[in-house]
Design a protein that fits this description.
It contains 14 helices and 12 strands. The chain is an alpha/beta fold. The chain has 2 domains: 9-20 and 276-375, Aspartate Aminotransferase, domain 1; 24-269, 3-Layer(aba) Sandwich (Aspartate Aminotransferase, domain 2), CATH 3.40.640. Strand 11 and strand 12 form a beta hairpin. The mean pLDDT is 97.
Length: 380
C-alpha cells in the first residue's frame, strides 16, 4: 500500500506524512489530464473540481465547504491569518512555549512589523492533565491580547490540547483563536464547527495521507471579509457574483499544480477503506499503537509517561538524557531508523518523538528502544 523504503523503520509520519501508492497514482492521472489540456483543466474545470474536493474535506473535518480554502500547508494558513490582522502598536499576540517553530517565527515577524508584543504562556511538560493547559494559557492573557495562536496537537511535545475548551474560554474574554491544527485531521476525530475557532488550519498531507502540499484554512464566516491570501491575483477584481470574495481570491493565486488539493477525496477514500471499520478504526488503532510505543520506550529508557493517555493522539514523546550529540543522524545511519530527536524547550534537553500509523508495528518501537539504549552512553 505504501511506497516507503522497506529498509528503513519509518517512525516519523508526523513530519511530512506518507502517501499510499494508490493515492499517488490518482494524482498522476490528474496531472496527465492537466497537461493534455491545461487551459480546459485550469480555466474551465478547476472551480468545480475544487468545489467537489472541498465538499469531501468538509464532510471529513466537520466544516461547511464554503468556509474552507485550500493552502499548501498549515504554516501558510497561519501566515495568511496573521498577515490579515489589523493589529495596532501595543497589541498582544499569545502563543505557548510548545508552538511550532515556523509558526512562532511568523508571529514574531508580524509583531515586529506592527509594533505588537508576543506573550508566551508556559505550559509545563511533563504535565498532569488538561486543566493545567487551560490554566496556564488563561493566566497569560492580558488586557491587550488580540489573538491566541494555539496548537491542537503540539509538534515538539506531541500532546493534544483541549482546544474546544480553550477557544470557548478565550472567546468569553473577547479573544479570537487561530488554531494550528497541522496534525489533527486524520489523527483525531475533528469537527471544526464544534471547535468554534475564528481560524483553523490543518494539513491533509500528514495523517490524512494526501500528497504533499495539501492543506486547508477554515475561516469563520464573520471573519472572512478581512482575510486575504498571501498572493493577491485575479480574484481581487473578478466581476463574478456567484461566489464570495473569499472563494474567488483563494481559489486562484496564480498558476500552480492544484492536484494535491484535488486528490484529498481519494486519500480519504483509500485510507478509510484500507482498515476494517474505516477512519474511526484507523484513528483508534493509531492511538493504541502510539500508547504502546510510548510504553515500550519508557520501559527501555527507565522513564514514566509525561502526560495522561487522553492527551495522546498518534504521536508520543519520551524524554531522553540531556545531550547535544547528533542522535537522530546516528539512529538513521547505524540502525536505519527514521525518528526525530527534538531539543525542547532548548538544548541540552531532548525528546524522541514517535509516530504511529497503520504501516507501523510494535517491533518497530522495540527496535528503537534497543537502538537508543546502545546509543546513549551511561555518562550522558
Amino acid at each position: 500500500m505504501w511506497t516507503l523504503d522497506s529498509g528503513v523503520v519509518f517512525l516519523n509520519h508526523g513530519s511530512f506524512g506518507a502517501c499510499p501508492e494508490a493515492v499517488l497514482d490518482f494524482q498522476q492521472t490528474l496531472r496527465e489530464e492537466l497537461e493534455r489540456e491545461p487551459v480546459r483543466f485550469l480555466s474551465r474545470e478547476l472551480p468545480a473540481r475544487l468545489d467537489a474536493a472541498r465538499a469531501a474535506l468538509g464532510t471529513f473535518i466537520g466544516a461547511d465547504p464554503d468556509d474552507l480554502a485550500f493552502v499548501a500547508n498549515a504554516t501558510t494558513g497561519v501566515n495568511t491569518v496573521l498577515r490579515s490582522l489589523a493589529l495596532e502598536p501595543g497589541d498582544d499576540l499569545l502563543v505557548t512555549d510548545h508552538a511550532y517553530n515556523a509558526c512562532r517565527n511568523a508571529v514574531s515577524a508580524v509583531a515586529v512589523a506592527r509594533g505588537a508584543r508576543v506573550v508566551v504562556a508556559h505550559v509545563p511538560f511533563p504535565i498532569d492533565g488538561e486543566d493545567t493547559v487551560v490554566n496556564a494559557i488563561l493566566a497569560a492573557v492580558t488586557p491587550r491580547t488580540r489573538l491566541a495562536l494555539l496548537d491542537h496537537v503540539t509538534s515538539p511535545t506531541a500532546i493534544v490540547f483541549p482546544i474546544a475548551r480553550l477557544v470557548a474560554a478565550l472567546g468569553e474574554r473577547g479573544i479570537e483563536t487561530l488554531v494550528d491544527g497541522a496534525h489533527a485531521p486524520g489523527m483525531l476525530p475533528l469537527d471544526v464547527r464544534t471547535v468554534g475557532a475564528a481560524y483553523y488550519t490543518g494539513n491533509c498531507h500528514k495523517w490524512m495521507c494526501a500528497p504533499k502540499g495539501a492543506a486547508f484554512l477554515h475561516v469563520r464566516r464573520d471573519r472572512q471579509a478581512a482575510v486575504r491570501p498571501l498572493v493577491i491575483s485575479h480574484g481581487a477584481n473578478s466581476p463574478r457574483t456567484d461566489r464570495s470574495r473569499f472563494r474567488l481570491e483563494f481559489d486562484w493565486t496564480g498558476t500552480h499544480d492544484p492536484t494535491p488539493y484535488l486528490t484529498v477525496p481519494e486519500a480519504i477514500r483509500v485510507v478509510g477503506t484500507a482498515w476494517p471499520g474505516g477512519w474511526p478504526a484507523v484513528m483508534k488503532q493509531n492511538h493504541a499503537l502510539a500508547l504502546l510505543a510510548r510504553r515500550r520506550l519508557c520501559e527501555a529508557l527507565g522513564r514514566t509517561p509525561p502526560c495522561p493517555d487522553v492527551m495522546i493522539g498518534s504521536l508520543a514523546a519520551v524524554q531522553l538524557p540531556d545531550g547535544t550529540d547528533d542522535l537522530q543522524k546516528r539512529l538513521f545511519d547505524r540502525f536505519a531508523i527514521e525518528v526525530p530527536v527534538i531539543a525542547w524547550p532548548a538544548a541540552p534537553e531532548r525528546w524522541v518523538r514517535v509516530s504511529a500509523h497503520i504501516y507501523n508495528r510494535e517491533e518497530d518501537y522495540v527496535r528503537l528502544g534497543e537502538a537508543l539504549r546502545s546509543s546513549i552512553s551511561p555518562a550522558t
